[in-house]
Design brief:
Number of strands: 64
Shape: elongated
Number of helices: 4
Structural class: mainly beta
CATH class of one domain: Mainly Beta
Strand content: 35-45%
């Protein structure tokens, strides 16, 4: 007789199951894990966590020791560690073309991507706001007073910056305004009076900073090295009035720090542009990267002249046509609440254009009915006179159009109606922007980089220890660098393309994802991890399964060494109904059968949370006791008991295999027993054990239906007829079950025959002889359970063996099996 020892290898469903798989390979490995080499164990169960959420539940995040969840168009947080969800104000949807919102923590803030750009949360119980600063818009400046800091025949330049300090101490500064120049030709020294337009988003917690150049003679340009002259917060009244007035009296000797875009600081290219609309985000080397980006809708127009015959004149109009139409009319004087701007004609051509353009910009920005567009004047000391930049206030804003009743006064000529001069934006499917270091909300437009060609979009980007791995239409790329100035993009593998963008996660300093090459793990190159189950995954991701890309997602479980791929098992699925579970240490695959729309591992308690299609959040049981081995629980009420018979108020939620429990916390403590019979007519159930039950509240717990089926056991010679010895030994390092079903069939006797396996126990005077085990030890830690092979299964070419366990608060850890065989002949007939 020859001996055969089967070790548990996990799923092998894409090989010749008769002759091309290692002994112990499995055809079914349902609701199990192989976390220890060659040991198949029941997975841990899940219990309901808190109240149900609105549908569908899309994404989980961890922030400040709590769970954030995106469901429908709502963001909520767990307020008490028990699933009492509180909704944040506002509605939030993923960026266009992205199935789920993505986010990360940086600078103690939580940032997440939406269809209206990057949103920010600075504390768990705070308010969600837009990420980034506010660009300063228009202001005016002129000499004032009888004396002051500015000498006669001298000039200076001003710029405004808006900013605030968030709840975590981060200073957020917006882009500075364009310069306004003040020249003093009054014959004496003077101060400067500034009137600053307040952007609509500003609150009293924001501050404004006034920067000024040192004064220079009027014949010498003042340059761009501006220094801080004044800082203050606007009052509520000033915000209502949309402007604040300040008199600058600061002498040059008391000017402070340089404006960050000054040549003496970071330079004019180092703007603090707000983060773009992005499809993905990650942190690396203190920088925040934004991928597959879109900027705001914007358009340039240039005023060419004022007055007759072809310049802008009184009663001429210019209109901005967006969601609503706002029309501004030229008049002799400014009246911004009435959408009127002054047309200036009394000076030089250049000064008339300059003054009229500034008036129009102020009229647009201070129009109380304008909620869509800001206007910026782009003139410098001697250039770009009359250039106006119109930009949408929100990243979600659609195209808008510009019209004028006197189109010839503008460059390019503006139509009097229609849509022939639309706004546009910069959409870079293959591009990424890089923030300033340790400033995730400051993203200079000059920081744009590209991967591949323009139509090859980026889908996912995840940061590893030494590089960012990017998955795109152009294949796999690595991004390296230590600052925005030395970013390097390197192709890694142009044969691997992601399928299901939410299947990409970080695990063991690699990126695991499902791709055209199956599940791959990528650091420097792609390693295929799913060859053993390739056929299953190819089917699940084929055109027969139309929802694969949108419903599939993955979880990275670092402490459990697992990549868990949630996907579909039937063509009509709209949520995950099967999970492929890979342990990268044992290199084994198993499956689970949860029903889930979203999931993740909470970094603060290191447990899996997932959402059911009904919006119920389920939390992993992880007490490392037998109490872990049950799924959902349901409340019942005990009316009376008699031995093992128990009458309930309603037994509708009870089925055979469940466990009745009382005083159980996470399945441990209290008492519990397995349900063996249910009579729905009388609401009487029967349990295994005769225990002392109290009348009143109890729970029933759903068992974890665990099944292990080995690939056909041919002993390496499928053509040979074999006789298997009658005794089969199943080895368990844990046999914490009442009984387990073993099934056998063969190629010659295809009908399955069942044998019930019972562990050796010793609870008092139990089934084992007195003294076999220590008192109180009900199940030995390691044991072999022998059984007789059914007669019909003893002669065959190959033998099929299955194990099934369906009991709550019970588990098995099967280490394999031993059996003996001998060859009968080379060929069976």
């Amino acid at each position: 007789m020859l001996a055969l020892n089967l070790k548990n290898q996990g799923l092998y469903t894409f090989s010749n199951p008769i002759s091309d798989v290692p002994p112990g390979s499995m055809a079914i490995a349902m609701n199990g894990v192989i976390d220890r080499p060659n040991v198949f164990e029941t997975r841990r169960g899940f219990m309901q966590y808190g109240t149900a959420l609105s549908l569908p539940v899309n994404q989980f995040f961890g922030y400040q020791n709590a769970i954030l969840v995106h469901h429908a168009t709502t963001m909520s947080y767990d307020s008490n560690g028990a699933g009492t969800w509180i909704d944040y104000a506002g509605t939030y949807s993923p960026p266009p073309g992205v199935p789920r919102i993505r986010g990360l923590e940086a600078n103690k803030n939580f940032y997440f991507l939406t269809s209206n750009g990057v949103q920010k949360l600075s504390s768990l119980t705070g308010t969600i706001t837009k990420s980034g600063g506010i660009d300063a818009i228009d202001f005016t400046a002129a000499v004032t007073g009888a004396t002051g800091f500015l000498a006669n025949n001298f000039q200076c330049a001003y710029a405004i910056v808006w900013g605030y300090i968030d709840a975590n101490g981060n200073e957020i500064l917006g882009n500075p305004s364009m310069f306004v120049y003040v020249a003093n030709t009054s014959g004496g020294t003077r101060n400067a009076a500034l009137t600053i337009t307040i952007p609509a988003e500003v609150t009293t917690s924001w501050f404004y900073q006034i920067y000024r150049t040192p004064q220079s003679a009027t014949s010498i340009p003042p340059g761009d090295n501006l220094q801080l002259a004044y800082q203050a917060n606007p009052t509520a009244g000033e915000i209502t009035a949309k402007s604040v007035s300040v008199t600058d009296i600061t002498p040059d000797s008391l000017l402070g720090t340089f404006l960050y875009t000054s040549s003496a600081a970071s330079g004019p290219a180092a703007t603090n542009d707000t983060p773009p609309l992005a499809n993905d985000i990650c942190n690396f080397q203190g920088m925040t990267f934004y991928f597959n980006c879109t900027t705001k809708q914007a358009v340039y127009i240039t005023l060419l002249g004022t007055g007759a015959p072809n310049g802008i004149q009184n009663d001429d109009t210019i209109s901005i046509v967006g969601t609503a139409t706002r029309t501004y009319t030229g008049k002799a004087a400014n009246n911004f609440p009435a959408q009127q701007f002054a047309v200036v004609t009394g000076g030089t051509v250049a000064s008339n254009i300059d003054a009229t353009a500034r008036n129009l910009v102020a009229a647009i920005n201070q129009d109380p009915g304008n909620t869509e567009v800001y206007a910026y004047y782009r003139a410098t000391f001697t250039t770009n006179i009359g250039v106006i930049y119109l930009k949408a206030r929100n990243l979600s804003h659609a195209v808008f159009h510009v019209q004028s009743s006197r189109g010839a006064a503008w460059s390019p000529p503006l139509p009097s109606s229609g849509t022939t001069y639309p706004s546009s934006n910069n959409q870079v499917l293959n591009g990424f922007y890089v923030s300033k270091q340790n400033q995730p909300e400051a993203v200079p437009l000059s920081s744009l980089n590209f991967i591949g060609s323009g139509n090859q979009q980026i889908y996912r980007a995840l940061a590893l220890r030494d590089a960012i791995l990017v998955e795109s239409d152009a294949g796999l790329y690595r991004i390296t660098g230590t600052s925005p100035s030395n970013i390097t993009v390197t192709p890694t593998d142009q044969t691997v393309f992601i399928k299901g963008t939410e299947t990409a996660v970080k695990l063991n300093n690699s990126v695991f994802s499902y791709s055209t090459q199956g599940v791959v793990a990528v650091t420097d190159s792609a390693q295929i991890m799913s060859r053993n189950i390739e056929g299953d995954l190819l089917s699940a991701s084929s055109s027969v399964f139309p929802n694969f890309a949108t419903l599939s997602f993955a979880i990275s479980y670092e402490s459990d060494r697992k990549y868990i791929l949630f996907t579909n098992s039937a063509p009509g699925d709209t949520y995950s109904t099967i999970q492929y579970v890979y342990n990268w240490i044992t290199q084994s695959w198993t499956t689970w059968n949860l029903q889930a729309t979203a999931g993740g591992v909470n970094p603060y308690d290191n447990k899996i949370y997932y959402a059911t299609p009904a919006g119920v959040v389920m939390k992993e049981r992880k007490s490392f006791t037998l109490g872990d081995y049950a799924d959902a629980e349901y409340a019942v009420n005990i009316i009376s008991t008699s031995g093992t018979s128990i009458q309930l108020t309603d037994a509708a939620n009870v089925s055979i295999g469940m466990s009745l429990g009382q005083g159980v916390t996470l399945g441990s403590g209290g008492i519990s027993s397995t349900v063996t019979a249910v009579d729905l007519l009388t609401d009487i159930i029967t349990v295994t054990d005769n225990l002392i039950w109290a009348t009143g509240a109890a729970n029933v717990y759903t068992p974890i239906n665990t099944e292990l089926t080995y690939q056909p056991i041919s002993c390496g010679f499928p053509a040979y007829l074999k006789r298997f010895a009658r005794l089969v030994q199943f080895i368990f390092s844990q046999a914490n079950f009442d009984d387990i079903e073993a099934r056998f069939n063969t190629n010659m006797a295809p009908s399955s025959e069942s044998v019930i396996l019972e562990p050796v126990t010793a609870s008092g005077f139990g089934t084992a002889p007195w003294g076999t085990f220590n008192w109180g030890v009900s199940v030995p830690g390691f044991q072999s359970i022998p059984t007789f092979l059914p007669r019909n299964s003893q002669m065959c070419n190959w033998l099929n063996i299955s194990l099934r366990l369906n009991q709550a608060f019970k588990n098995m850890a099967c280490d394999g099996l031993n059996l003996f065989y001998s060859f009968v002949s080379e060929v069976s007939r």
